[in-house]
Specification:
five-stranded mixed beta sheet; alpha/beta; 8 helices; three-stranded antiparallel beta sheet
Length: 227
């Protein structure tokens, strides 16, 4: 169960408060893979940060009894002065993985990310793609009820993409995901339902095609690509 209860989120700006959501109440369907779609600036990544506990609402609450991952693919989350190994060790300690379990998880992330010696260099030296590889691998190293994934499915070459899809499919055999993507191919492939975020609202479409159609109405230039 994941619910938004009278959720309000705003950020300060030179023009005063910029509201992303105002008194938003919404329930995500249980046991479904959710595609979170909407125009740029609609609040998708903000909502992902709120769901993952990286950010907090100004008012209202996110209420859930599910074990939810951090948002994979968002730029934040790593301590840039530490290496990927040290960041992974820190995350393991937070989630109670110590000793042999920690070593297994770190070995998995190192093997999965395929960034060689950079795994022991500061994260600030990484490209955005390398960060995404480590972030995705670190998330897959833990068991969650929901995996939050934000525009990270296209990272790497064909071999790495295939490996990522295989690991994700294994996790989704016993879990669900909430996926932010502008790729309607990925939305159709991975998602059972669509949530269209627009102008501070969230609308659930149980028919994925109808959800994509609503999204396309806001993005007429994308119609041909999505088709």
């Amino acid at each position: 169960m994941i619910e938004l209860r009278n959720l309000t989120k705003w950020y300060p700006s030179t023009m005063g408060r910029r509201y992303v959501f105002r008194n938003l109440s919404f329930s995500f369907p249980d046991g479904a893979n959710v595609g979170l779609i909407g125009r740029n600036g609609a609040g998708k990544s903000t909502l992902m940060r709120l769901l993952g506990g990286i950010d907090s609402p100004n008012e209202g609450a996110v209420v859930s009894n599910a074990n939810i991952s951090w948002p994979v693919g968002l730029g934040g989350g790593f301590q840039a002065s530490l290496s990927a190994r040290q960041n992974a060790q820190f995350v393991c300690r937070i989630y109670g993985a110590t000793g042999a379990e920690m070593r297994r998880k770190i070995a998995f992330v190192e093997s999965f990310a395929e960034i060689g010696e950079y795994f022991d260099l500061p994260v600030r030296s990484y490209s955005s793609g390398m960060r995404s590889r480590v972030s995705f691998g670190l998330s897959m190293a833990f068991d969650f009820d929901y995996y939050l994934i934000d525009e990270v499915m296209a990272v790497g070459d064909a071999q790495f993409k295939a490996k990522s899809q295989t690991v994700l499919a294994e996790r989704l055999a016993r879990a669900n995901l909430i996926l932010v993507s502008h790729s309607m191919t990925d939305i159709r492939k991975y998602c059972d339902v669509v949530v269209h975020v627009d102008k501070g609202t969230a609308t659930l479409y149980k028919d994925v095609s109808k959800g994509i159609q609503a999204y396309m109405q806001d993005h007429p230039r994308r119609k041909q690509r999505a088709a």
